[in-house]
Amino acid sequence: MAHLTEERVLELKAIARKLRVDILEMITKAASGHTGGSLSIADLITLLYFEEMHIDPANPKMADRDRLVLSKGHAAPAMYAALAEKGYFDKEELNHLRQAGHMLQGHPDMKHTPGVDMTTGSLGQGISAACGMALASKMDHASWRVYAILGDGELEEGQVWEAAMYAAHYKLDHLTAFVDNNGLQIDGPVSEVMSPLPIGEKFKAFGWHVISVNGHDMSALHDAIEEAHSVSGQPTVIVMKTVKGKGVKETENQVGWHGKAPSPEQCVQFVKEVEEAE
């Protein structure tokens, strides 16, 4: 297993800080969007786009590219920030989040946004689409992989477990799912709204290989992804323990920031905090 060097981890952390700044600024300009869950996956998104995935911004539809499905589609600002930073489109587009006539809408749209592999938004549907992609790769004896990111509240959708059963039945070992286990959804703690816990044990019972990891530890996440690549005959789920609103003390672990935009004054404060973080 190839581990990340300390130097590379620092480089990735710097990119993640840039993405968090872009997330905050675009949601503030839109005066609308999902701050908490976008910030909680910024580290994973950074790692996938800038270290793990075989992709080419100059050729977004490259046949052998790895696919990423953001099943928790409301966290689209995290994906948009990464796509812009990677060079799929001009960063100026980030100024037009959720504006009519522009391509960066509140949920990912594969028809209008370069680099988006699947339109998502209705929770539960993204992981099902990812299963179909992974089956296509397997049937073609191809090498490309499929990654899917789910929210922990999203696991309350029955469709997720139909997809989980399907993935195990067809031995979709090209599929790696990530659960953003930040513990909060729009109405409160997931454990109180409709508990999906214990997450890992449920996926294991459905026939998945399960890895639990700190979702903000780049090295641990990378090692988990490497482990997933080594698994044969099973899909893998990486259950990430994360902090909702990660990177800004005022938003961390606060359910009120699930779908709330910062004010311009708050944005200045929050950006300063992110940029000054180690």
Layout: helices, strands, pairs:
Elements: H1 6-30, H2 35-40, H3 42-52, E1 67-70, H4 76-86, H5 125-139, E2 146-151, H6 158-169, E3 175-181, E4 184-185, E5 188-189, H7 190-193, H8 199-205, E6 209-214, H9 218-230, E7 236-241, H10 264-276
Parallel strand pairs: 1-2, 2-3, 3-7, 6-7
Antiparallel strand pairs: 4-5
Largest sheet composition:
5 strands, parallel
| Helical/strand content category | alpha/beta
Strand-residue fraction?
5-15%
Shape: globular
Radius of gyration based on Cα positions: 17 Å
Multimer state: single chain
Q: Going across the biggest sheet, name each strand in turn.
A: 1-2-3-7-6
Give the fraction of residues assigned to helices.
40-55%
Please name the fourth-level CATH homologous superfamily. Thiamin diphosphate (ThDP)-binding fold, Pyr/PP domains
Please give the CATH class. Answer: Alpha Beta
- The CATH level-2 architecture is identified as 3-Layer(aba) Sandwich
Task: Give structural notes.
It is a single chain. With 278 residues, the protein is an alpha/beta fold. It has one domain (6-276): Rossmann fold (3-Layer(aba) Sandwich). 42% of the residues lie in helices and 12% in strands. The protein has helices spanning 6-30, 35-40, 42-52, 76-86, 125-139, 158-169, 190-193, 199-205, 218-230, 264-276, and strands at 67-70, 146-151, 175-181, 184-185, 188-189, 209-214, 236-241. The strands form 2 sheets. It has a 5-stranded parallel sheet, with helices on both faces. A two-stranded antiparallel ribbon has the order 4-5. Strand 6, helix 9 and strand 7 form a beta-alpha-beta unit. Helix 1 (6-30) crosses helix 3, helix 1 (6-30) crosses helix 4 and helix 1 packs antiparallel against helix 10 (264-276). The chain starts with 5 loop residues before the first helix and ends with a helix. The mean pLDDT is 97. Its cofactor is thiamine diphosphate. This is Transketolase. InterPro entries: THDP-binding (IPR029061), Transketolase_N (IPR005474). Belongs to the transketolase family.
